[in-house]
Amino acid sequence: MGTTLAEKVWADHLVRKGGDGAPDLLYIDLMLMHEVTSPQAFEGLRLAGRKPRHVDQLIATEDHNTPTVDIDRPNPDKTSALQLSTLEKNCKEFGVRLHPLGDADQGIVHAFAPILGLTQPGMTIVCGDSHTSTHGAFGALAFGIGTSEVEHVMATQTLSLKPFKTMAINVNGKLPADATAKDIILAIIAKIGTGGGQGYVIEYRGEAIRDLTMDERMTVCNMSIEAGARAGMIAPDETTFEYLKGRPHAPEGEMWDKAVAYWKTLKTDDDAVFDKVVDIDATKLGPYVTWGTNPGQGLPITADVPDPAKIADATERSAAERAIKYMGLKPGMPIKDIAVDTVFIGSCTNGRIDDLRQAAAIMKGHHKAKNIHRVLVVPASSRVRLEAEKEGLDKVFKDFGAEWRNAGCSMCLGMNPDKLVPDERSISTSNRNFEGRQGKGSRTHLASPAVAAATAIRGTISSPADL
Ligand code: SF4
């Protein structure tokens, strides 16, 4: 019997087979680090008197706690300032390469690494951050790990892991012009639920996936964790190779040819069997948006807010009741009638150059609606910011009345100055709409950059077709 892509990468990194229920030991090619989940790992290493096993396979950036304005001034938030200075001190002491705030390669941990060509097909990549699944877009086996595991990888460059189950999600047919990668993944999570991927590594397959750019594939894999999956992967192909060629860390010359020859073997065999298969008809998809407080509570933008009284399952009914109350909505109201206060375009899900181009194309020649307090456009990395400025996208955003910021996690989560106030409602291109995610009492609707841009123009949740 053949093997799946995930099983191939696993087998190529096996240091020791566990057996008898014991975990396998896997070699880890690359570990990404940031200021939030690394301090305890460095401290553990320090206390044990150890040094990193392969320091050149660790790389750090600053993203969660960084301000996105006035980055040259001292950070006014003491906790954030301490987190960042601790990372800088630790990286210096242990010799870990760091891209700090202000560096041209600084950015969200899942955005700066692919741009540098550090993320490559067939790798094992870990980070103390759940959205590490993003890197699976290149055919890497990439997943988030806990703090003690971060320390283990630093000390040994290996990780003990129990094998995952495998799931194929086939997104069949062509995606309609008004649907995007974000709509694909929101539709998948709405279908399989936030626990639907638990215990699995998902492989996204099918024509609609093959047609996506690398930025779009990263959007899909990024949100695998929101379906509960350990990781998401897409087999590498010409789109992947074209993206990687010439990037600073991509192989060159003869090594490039050898790498591509290996990368071409990284695909699921025709006779491989997945533990679970889900089929999605891409031709039926359109813009999606969440109405509730988890990423699975999403619907097509043309739908109404669900009426909990019509939900048969008691657990789902009570979750919907609670979500609707928290979100300040009414059952049965059209999603398109929901007026928002703030628009956030950014994050490791949708802060890449393709996303900014998509938003700018819609905003160009318009101005933000009167009821919109603020529109934040936050590139996912400093390189994305530079590229956007080269293309004049910053001018489009500023003319629109948006704020053009420096790179960072920003309003994806309330860990830096970019927060919502209680009851403030946002449409956000990020990945989590949990209660309080964007600040205490904040209300978040997840959507694509296209929907966020159209909403910023009309003031109510809208798709570009409504303009
Ligand atoms: S942008 Fe949001 S989800 Fe992504 S790494 Fe930052 S905080 Fe996490």
TrEMBL record:
EC id: 4.2.1.33
Keyword Iron-sulfur: yes
Cofactor(s) needed by this chain: [4Fe-4S] cluster
Annotated Aconitase/3-isopropylmalate dehydratase large subunit alpha/beta/alpha domain residues: 7-459
Protein name listed in UniProt: 3-isopropylmalate dehydratase large subunit
Gene that encodes the chain: leuC
Function: Catalyzes the isomerization between 2-isopropylmalate and 3-isopropylmalate, via the formation of 2-isopropylmaleate.
Residues that, per the record, bind [4Fe-4S] cluster: 348, 409, 412
Database matches in Pfam families: Aconitase (PF00330)
Annotated organism of origin: Bifidobacterium reuteri DSM 23975
Catalytic reaction annotation: (2R,3S)-3-isopropylmalate = (2S)-2-isopropylmalate
Superkingdom of the source species: Bacteria
